[in-house]
Amino acid sequence: MTKLRTGVVGLGWAGTVHARTMAALPGIDLVAVSDLDPAKHTAFPDIPLYRDVQEMLRLELDYCVIATPSATHERYALLLAAAGVPALIEKPLAPTGEAALRIHDAFARTGTFAAVGHTERHQAPLAELARLLHSGDFGELWQLETRRQGPYSGRILDVGVALDLLVHDVDLVSWLAGAPIESVTAATRTLAGPNEDTATATTVLRGGVLAHHHADWITPFKHRQVQVHTAAGVLTADTVAGTLTHHPNTAAPAPADSFPGVQSGEARLITLPEQEAPFTVEHRLMRDALLGAGPRGLVTLAEGAHAVTATEALLTAAGTGRATPVAARELALT
């Protein structure tokens, strides 16, 4: 197998996981890491450390991960795009919708491949949930709900809970429903520091489906759940427990012009196919895309930009107390 020469910019928590994953994956050769803090290099003593990213790019990398604080994503992404180096950019793609679109346009202009690291899509319960929904076997989609809670990690300093956590679920509901978010209402609260610590929102997707969200980092236990209400019942993906549950709706079918109602049936656990860790899945997809398999399964820059734009609208809605439209620009959402 051809080995891709790769590098990682930023050795915080996410960058370290990316680097370890890449170093262990067949077909990938991690040849460079970059961080402004030399102490971070101790985790990768055999990999050359570069403080200057432009110097690292002279290595003719086949792709590079950007895992620095989100405020710096645009600067590094534009360097990679100009050099023609494919990129995997950690979520959020950028701290603002305008910056995310500039990144999208830079890679489009140079014809360079890039993707966004929304690794939640590769969690086994969510991957299977998406497969079942997109197969159409559960009928009409009625509503989505997401809950993402836990203690503050201490490692996120430049954004609040919306761009750190809720952006995952904004991306997930659009992906699961196969439709972009068109408007949002929201409320947030800041307990300390400059950014919000808890956020609640309702997003309206194209076609009218509602998605309800809650995210915070003030809860002393970890909770990660996505519920999808369909005509055939509720599917609940729990990525902490690693389960996908179907609570069926056994109500008899009704005429097309009337609501069929809901009647509870016996819940069942859906067997999940064996799957590797999300970062491993993501880098396998990235490797295979660059070796000719195409971008299937990866989050595009258009999708990443939409998640940022929708989350930005959420923060605007929380600040104004009014429903806020999501700034629309026709990008190829897949």
From TrEMBL:
Residue ranges of every copy of the Gfo/Idh/MocA-like oxidoreductase N-terminal domain listed in the record: 4-118
Pfam families with a match to the protein in the record: GFO_IDH_MocA, GFO_IDH_MocA_C3
Signal peptide: none
Domain GFO/IDH/MocA-like oxidoreductase: residue ranges: 128-235
Protein name: Gfo/Idh/MocA family protein
Natural source organism: Streptomyces pulveraceus
